[in-house]
Each structure stands twice: as structure tokens, then as C-alpha cells.
Here is the input.
Amino acid sequence: MEAEAIHAEQWTVIDAKFNKEHADLQARIISWPELLKDTADKAPFFQERFQEFIELRDYVANVSYAIPVKLQGNFGRQLQELQQLHEQEKEKAIPKKKFSFARKKPAPK
Here is the structure.
């Protein structure tokens, strides 16, 4: 009974930390239009946010032994949604360049 209470306390701490870091990262990703006016700053900004995402994902992997499967599933779903949000916002901020073949100049006659 006491072990279950300790585990429940660990789950609560882990859940609180994950939720706080997830919400903070989500807010930073969404706030890019207010923060970035210069195009040159956008790529490093999104690289840093992706690195933070990786750290959060690694945190979940490291504590997975201490949390129930249902909570792991919730974390996984939230991480997947966060990754999709990151990709969507990055595409808005840094549109992909359109590829086209350049026309070769005709050879001089």
C-alpha cells in the first residue's frame, strides 16, 4: 500500500513536469510570429525548439519505467501532436523553396 502511494507521488511529479514543459514548449512554438521578424532568425529558432522537443521526448523515455502504460500513451500522443505543431509552424515560417529545372540557354550557332 505504501509502495503504491510512493509510485502515485512519482507519477504526479512526472506528470506535472511533463505538462509544464509541454505547455511551455507549445507556447514558444506558437509565439514565433511575435518573436521573429528577421527571416535569418527563423531556422535557428525552430532548431532550438526541436532540440527542446527531443529533450522532452528523452525525459519521457527515461521515466517510462516509473509511470503506468496509460500515462505513457498520453505522453506519446501529446508528443506526437507537439511534433506536428512544430512542423506546421515551421512550414508557415520557412516555406519550402519550389524546385524547378533551369532552362539551358541554346548553344550559339
The first helix runs from residue 2 to 30. The chain has a mean pLDDT of 83. The two ends are 92 Å apart (CA to CA).
